[in-house]
């Protein structure tokens, strides 16, 4: 049984501070260790339930966060920038299940720890076929396009609630309870990792209960930015159309285009934001 594990960082056990999310920030190195430990808990659980092949994708920021020297040796790791499918790099129709670890709630979610969608402040909202969309729905939609069900989501309470809203009775593990965007009540790592391991095994044992999350084509990606300059820059990409002063859209029959193009948009947005100084 082949299992895919996408690991983000904002929803990882013990983490609440933006400084912990990027290289050079206070607490980042420890954050990488905790991120790897969450991934290992998933790997251990699915192997207990009969997995034979596990691929882990580092899905956060630079995608150079997970510690390969600390990763469960039964798993392989995809890391490094330039991945066309970004948070879902390496996911194919050959997998039996997908698991999301360390995920967070979409932008604007009350009590969502480090809540955002794809970018920390440049993106106000992302839409998929006209409905608001966080990273959970986006990556689950890509998995569904490939026919792969999502079996497990771990993160803060708000992320787990979002996962159930999108996916139904998926297995979830809330490792922290948000108080505000940068504050939470945390489970100790030993407790959280035991819960993740148990839930991962349980998810694989009830895999027949899950169905792929299928978004009907054509797929329309909408992005509402915080800047007219970002929207104007992204609108130069062929096929991208303005839908408002700060809002763009793109439609495709292939969900791979949606995943890849959102990453390209983010690169443009990052460059524009860097050049915009105090105007953001």
UniProtKB/TrEMBL annotation:
InterPro entries in UniProt: DppA_N, Peptidase_M55, Peptidase_M55_sf
Q: Which UniProt keywords apply?
A: Aminopeptidase, Hydrolase, Metal-binding, Protease, Zinc
The record's annotation in CDD domains points to: DAP_dppA_1
List, from the UniProt record, the residues annotated as the active site of this protein: 116 (nucleophile)
Q: Which GO terms describe its molecular function?
A: aminopeptidase activity; metal ion binding
| Organism in which the protein naturally occurs | Sphaerisporangium rubeum
Q: Which domain of life is it from?
A: Bacteria
Q: Which residues bind Zn(2+) 2?
A: 8, 60, 104, 135
Residues bound to Zn(2+) 1: 8, 10
Q: What class of enzyme is it?
A: hydrolase
Q: EC number(s) of the enzyme?
A: 3.4.11.-
Q: What is this protein called?
A: D-amino peptidase
Pfam name, any one: Peptidase_M55
């Amino acid at each position: 049984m082949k299992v895919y594990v996408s690991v983000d960082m904002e929803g990882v056990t013990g983490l609440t501070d933006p400084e912990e999310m990027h290289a050079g920030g206070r607490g980042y190195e420890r954050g990488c260790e905790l991120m790897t430990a969450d991934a290992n808990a998933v790997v251990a659980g699915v192997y207990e339930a009969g997995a034979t092949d596990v691929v882990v994708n580092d899905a956060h920021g630079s995608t150079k966060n997970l510690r390969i020297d600390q990763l469960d040796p039964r798993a392989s790791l995809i890391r490094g920038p330039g991945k066309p499918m970004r948070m879902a790099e390496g996911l194919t129709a050959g997998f039996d299940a997908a698991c999301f670890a360390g995920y967070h709630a979409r932008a604007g979610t009350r009590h969502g720890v480090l809540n955002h969608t794809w970018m920390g402040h440049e993106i106000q909202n992302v839409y998929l076929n006209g409905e608001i969309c966080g990273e959970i729905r986006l990556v689950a939609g890509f998995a569904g396009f490939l026919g792969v069900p999502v079996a497990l989501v771990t993160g803060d309470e708000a992320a787990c609630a979002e996962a159930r809203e999108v996916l139904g009775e998926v297995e979830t593990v809330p490792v922290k309870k948000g108080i505000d965007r940068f504050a939470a009540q945390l489970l100790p790592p030993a407790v959280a990792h035991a819960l993740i391991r148990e839930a991962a095994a349980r998810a694989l044992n009830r895999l027949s209960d899950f169905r792929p999350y299928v978004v009907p084509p054509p797929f329309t990606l909408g992005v509402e930015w915080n800047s007219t300059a970002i929207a104007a820059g992204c609108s130069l990409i062929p096929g991208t159309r303005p839908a408002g002063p700060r809002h763009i859209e793109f439609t495709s029959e292939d969900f791979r285009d949606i995943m890849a193009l959102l990453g390209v948009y983010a690169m443009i947005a990052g460059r524009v934001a860097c050049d915009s100084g105090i105007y953001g």
